[in-house]
Each structure stands twice: as C-alpha cells, then as structure tokens.
Design a protein that fits this description.
Helix content is about 30%, strand content about 35%. It is α+β, with helices and mostly antiparallel strands. The strands form four sheets. The chain has a twelve-stranded antiparallel barrel. A seven-stranded antiparallel β-sheet has the order 10-8-7-6-5-9-11. It has a two-stranded antiparallel ribbon with strand order 1-2. The radius of gyration is 29 Å and the shape is globular. The N terminus is likely disordered.
Length: about 625
C-alpha cells in the first residue's frame, strides 16, 4: 500500500521480543519481571497488534507478510515476537526510518506503558521520530467509518465497502484522509475479481487517499450513495489508531472476499484504537460490510451519521419534478451550448428554468467524470450553464424532494432462518432453510436497494410427512439478482446469476432428483410506478443429473415479473417463466410463481408463496407459509 505524507512513508510492520536471562543476580530482568513479560505475551492488546486469531488448536496472525514479524516464529508465537521486539528496540540507530522503533510505533507505545521502567530504559528511543513527523503534519483529531453502498452492476461491489476517514484539526470533511484496505490487482473484470477474491488469490494492503478522491470514485463514477458514520474516539484513541495504521504500511494479507476483506481488516484498527473492544472477535465465519457497521454501532463507537448522495441520485432527485420532455431537453442542453441557451430562453416558469439548468449542470459534470467530454469542453459548457443559472438566485431547502433513504444499519440482519409448512405436488411438507448472508428480493427492503439481492450458501430442505422423507429442495452456492430500472438518464442492464443444487422431477414419474444447476439472465427493468419494478430477462440454463438423457438438460427461455414494495411492511413478487430445453433431455418448462411477505419487525417476517409448474408433461402446484427470523 502507498501510505505517504509529505514525502515520508508511514511506517508499518511487526515487533519482536528479547530472550531474557534469569540466571544471574546481576541481570536487569528479575524473575518477577520475566513473569510479567510472559503475561504480556498473552495480553489481548498484544494479540490485536499482531492480528492474531484463534484457530482450532492454536493461534495465528492473519497477516501473511513475513516482513511484518521480527521473529521467524512471529506469525504463530506471540512470546517469540515480543522477545524479538524488545531486543530490536534496544539496539540500532533510531534515526533510521527502517529502524523497528519507527516501523512499529504502536508496539513501542504499548510496551512503554506496560514494561517496567528499568526495561524500557534500554530502548534506544522513547518515541518514533517518523510517526511524530506524520502526526504533527496531519494533526488528526477525529475519525469516521465510511460506507459506500452496494453497487449491483459490479460483482466486486455487491456487499458495499467500508473505509476509515482520519480528519485533521484544519480539515474539511472532503479533505480528510481515507484509510482503505483492498485487494491489489490489475483485474478489470468484476466477475473474475469476485471469483478469485473468494479464494484468496490477491494480496490485500492498506492505502491512504484524499477523501474527495474516494467520493469521486464511489459517488460520481460508481453511482454509489455514501454513509458517513462519525466515531466518538477520544484524542488518545485517535492516536492509538494512527500508531497502528503506521505499522501496517507495507504489510500484506491474503484478501478473502467473504472473510478477510476490507471491513474485517479495518476492525483491527478500531480494536487498536480502543483497547478491549474486541470487534474482530465478534466475527467468526464471514464478514459483511453492513454487519460491521452494525457491530461498531452496537459497541458504542458511533456518535452520528451523515448521508452523501451519489451523482446519479442527485440527478434523479433534480429531474423528478420535471416532465419527461424537459428531462430530455436537459440532456441535449448538457451536450450543446446553443441548446442550453435556447432551452432557458424558451421557458417562462422560473422553477422550471432552475431545475433544467441544475439538471444540465449535473449531467455535464457526470459526462466529464465518465470521460465523455474533455476538460476544455467541460469548462466552457459548465460556465455557459452557470451564467444562465446565477441570475435566478438561490432556492430553499424544500425546492427539491428529499431523497435520504433509510440508513444501512437499520436494515435486517444478514443471516436468516426460515421455517414453514405447505404442500408440494399434493404432498404435505414441512420446510426449513438457512441463509448465512445476505439479502433477497422478498426480504424487508429498509436499508437495502429495491431490486438488488445476493445470497450465498443458502440451503432449503423439505420433509415430506407422508413419505417421511427429507430432501434438498434448494442449495444455492450463490444467487444474485440485479434489477436496475432504466430511465431517461441511465440505461444499465438487469441481470441474474444462480448456481447450486435443486430438485427436479423425473420424466414420466413422480420421483424427484437433486441436480446441479446453473442459470443466468440478462435483460431490462423499468419502474412501472413508485417502488415497483417490472422486468423481462432472457435466461440460459443447464441441469446435470444422471436421470437425464446424456446426463444433462440445457436450453433457455425468458422470465417476466413484477416486484413491488407496497409499504414498509408489505411486498410482493409475481413471475412467469418459460423455458425450452433442446440439448440433452428435451423438455419444456412453464412456471408461474407469486409471493407476498409482511414484516413483523426489523428482524422477523411472514411469507406466503404459490407456484404452478408444468414440466415433463406433468403439472403440479406448490404452496408454502413461512416464518422468517433474521440474525
């Protein structure tokens, strides 16, 4: 990572511990002191600084860079690392930027607070000159957690992201320093990045960038709204955070999309800032960015939050009161100076003039950010619009409709268990399903984006009471839906991707088989009315099972549907699917499904569903009532 300030590197790396002699009475380290050092090696804060996590039989650091450790045993032996650190602090030239005292200022600070004075007196310096130079240049005074919302049209951004902002005493919000942990790769294909990231194929590093650059990256270019969560860190806690951040400059860890990701590694910084908080320990199996926001909030780190809407949200907000004709003319005005002047002169209504000019200004900025116009064209065109806008004056705060959505932290928890009862092909069934993460189209939408869904390792089981038989109804490795409505300004495709195991009927039989399946979809979505999305997708699909001719069934078709959020409690979905399988087993599928859900609370809901299917020349119905608990 490139953490640089005023031309000097921000130091980051690990520490070591000195092997202490106990035999001689002349030794400066007494038996009592040695016992204290042994206890320090098992101190939770020392383990936080080394990024230790408990494994089945021992403990191991999540940092994979051997240069982070001063002892060869450092990744698995905290005592050896402590001994090597004390030894390294007691020798060498502390004015050298590469000296361990400059590389590990958080370790130095902690040891000075916890070792006996006669032990710390051996250190060649009492502070890191490199860190103090950085601290004095930045004058950090506050910190905040930044959450760019999920962006479903990029698989690498499906869960959102988290950053930490460091604000100086003289800094405005946009001039803060953003601390980011991310995978280091030149891969530009989001799907390939996500797949490789799942299996830890990329190194992850910290970096620091001006926050305004991140706002441009996420808000202007990626169309992602941003939530800023202001932390209530004390001055000492801000300093602790900075001390440990400087230790992580050049260290890398293998990046895992679902666990050792951006959010997970930032939690170590907050644990270092506030000793005893143990945020990292509250995540055992997977880490979802929005879950870390909730955890940080539940552990009383957050003082307040602020919403920063993306450019796309701003454009839609400004355009919403305008008739379609003026929206389209604003696009033309943003592409042509003469059209801009003509549009303004043709309007008599002051409010319409203001809205069309404000809209044109936002569009020009978007075109420039997207690289569609060069700097000179942008400057000239933007200035032409501003000259027309200035005489119209300011507008009050209510001139444009408010678009602040529910904050991410108020949404349902990402894990879910569902129990239900119903019937499948006239057979009574009991059902249970478990989903580790994250959100589907029928889950409560508060804090999430309507039409966006991603689930992984979601399993559903049916128990047929008459047959006394348990079977896998569905086991999805991953399931993604991105229904992104097109409008006058944005023409993104809608798409789906699903793969895993599912139950299929057998031809000319009531028998059921578990098949491997893969299907995808691409098409278009539109907003039919408020909080309602109509969609139509083309869907290829393939099923693999020995009961099928040639062991497979492949083909395609399409689906049309309507997803609606009627109010904060009620939502529904209606779908009609038609597929033709022409490779391997020949088959035709016609399927109608209808679902409705009602939220009982933030983390509980009721759901009812009905489906009618025709396949392999058989027709059957499926009905289910279910209770959902999110946790």
């Amino acid at each position: 990572m490139d953490l640089r300030l005023s031309g000097r590197s921000i130091i980051a790396a690990p520490f070591f511990y000195i092997v202490l002699c106990l035999a001689s009475p002349a030794s400066a380290i007494t038996t009592k002191a040695t016992a204290s050092i042994a206890a320090l090696a098992e101190d939770d804060y020392w383990h936080t600084l080394l990024h230790y996590k408990q494994t089945i039989f021992s403990q191991k650091s999540t940092i994979d860079d051997p240069a982070f450790f001063l002892s060869p045993e450092g990744p698995v032996n905290p005592a050896a690392e402590l001994e090597a650190t004390i030894a390294a602090f007691s020798a060498g030239d502390p004015t050298d930027e590469a000296h361990p005292i400059n590389r590990f200022p958080a370790r130095l600070n902690w040891l000075q607070q916890n070792l006996a004075p006669e032990q710390t007196a051996r250190f060649v310096a009492t502070q890191s000159s490199t860190f103090e130079e950085i601290w004095n240049a930045m004058e950090p005074s506050a910190a905040s957690v930044i959450f760019p919302a999920q962006y479903m049209n990029n698989p690498a951004s499906l869960f959102g992201h988290t950053l930490i902002n460091i604000e100086g005493k003289r800094n405005e919000k946009l001039l803060a320093y953003s601390v980011n942990y991310s995978a280091i790769t030149e891969e530009t294909n989001g799907l390939i990045f996500a797949v490789k990231g799942i299996f830890g194929h990329y190194p992850g590093r910290f970096s620091i960038d001006p926050y305004y650059q991140k706002v441009q990256q996420y808000s202007d270019l990626s169309m992602r709204d941003i939530w800023e969560y202001n932390l209530n860190l004390t001055p000492d806690e801000v300093r602790n955070l900075m001390l440990h951040l400087c230790e992580l400059k050049d260290a890398y860890s293998d990046y895992y999309f679902f666990k050792e990701n951006c959010s997970y590694n930032l939690l170590f910084l907050l644990d270092a800032a506030r000793p005893g908080s143990a945020l990292v320990d509250q995540f055992k199996h997977w880490v979802i960015p929005v879950d870390t926001i909730k955890t940080v909030r539940n552990n009383h780190f957050i003082d307040s939050e602020h919403y920063r809407c993306s450019r796309s949200t701003t454009i839609k907000r400004i355009a919403s009161p305008l008739p379609q004709a003026l929206q389209e003319r604003s696009i033309v005005a943003a592409q042509n100076d003469a059209a801009s002047i003509e549009l303004t002169e043709s309007l008599n209504n002051r409010d319409d003039k203001i809205r069309t000019l404000d809209l044109s200004a936002e569009l020009v900025q978007m075109y420039h950010a997207d690289g569609k116009i060069d700097q000179k064209t942008y400057s000239d065109r933007f200035l032409t619009i501003l000259k027309q806008r200035a005489p119209l004056g300011k507008v009050d705060a209510n001139f444009y409709p408010s678009t602040t959505p529910p904050a991410p932290h108020i949404g349902h928890d990402s894990s879910r268990i569902t129990t239900g009862f119903g019937s499948y092909d006239s057979k009574d069934v009991l059902s249970i399903s478990l989903r580790p993460a994250y959100h589907d189209l029928m889950d409560p939408s508060a804090g999430y984006t309507l039409g966006s869904a991603i689930e992984f390792l979601s399993a559903e089981f049916y128990y047929y009471t008459d047959e006394q038989k348990l079977e896998i109804r569905q086991l999805d490795a991953i399931s993604i839906q991105s229904l992104f409505p097109i409008d006058t300004f944005f023409k993104s495709k809608s798409w789906t991707l699903n793969t895993g195991l599912t139950t299929i009927k057998e031809k000319d039989s009531d028998d059921r088989h578990t098949a491997i399946y893969f299907d995808a979809g691409v098409g278009v979505s539109v907003s039919l009315f408020e909080n309602s999305i109509g969609y139509a997708l083309v869907e290829p699909a393939i099923y693999l099972n020995k009961s099928l001719d040639s062991n497979h069934m492949a083909g395609g078709g399409g689906v049309i549907g309507l997803l609606s959020q009627w109010n904060p409690q009620w939502r529904s979905q209606l779908e009609l699917r038609q597929r033709y399988y022409l490779l391997g087993e020949h088959n035709q599928l016609t399927e109608l499904t209808a679902q409705a859900a009602y939220s009982l609370g933030e983390n509980t809901a009721l759901q009812i569903s009905f489906g009618r299917s025709h396949e392999f020349k058989q027709t059957w119905n499926e009905f289910r009532c279910a209770f959902q608990l999110f946790f």
